[in-house]
Amino acid sequence: MNDAGSLYFGVGNAVFTASGNKVWNNKVHDVSDASAMDPKATAATGFTSNNQTGLVDVENNLVYRVSGDTVNLPKAPSASGLENTIKNNILAFGRLGMIEDTNP
Fold this sequence. Notes:
The chain is an all-beta fold. The chain has strands at 5-9, 21-24, 27-31, 45-49, 56-59, 62-66, 69-73, 85-87, 90-94, 97-101. The strands form three sheets. A four-stranded parallel sheet has the order 1-4-7-10, with no helix packed on it. It has a three-stranded parallel sheet with strand order 2-5-8, with no helix packed on it. The protein is globular and about 40 Å long. The protein has no helices and ten strands.
């Protein structure tokens, strides 16, 4: 992988986010980016919610040994009340970190 996540959700934009998305009971491990071939490669994550996606329930997942963050939230939902829920997950050994929220 070179970008995004093993589990990737991009179902939102500045005016809308889809509701009812669930990421439950997954096992994601040993995921790496393409940095061995491309020094500009971005790290591979376990779960990424992008493009102002909100209302995603991320629960009971096991994510470990990924070259990026175990959870990456690069763009927050556009309005309050659309927050993602991340609970009861086991997140371990993310090379860059456990949770990255670049635009809370």
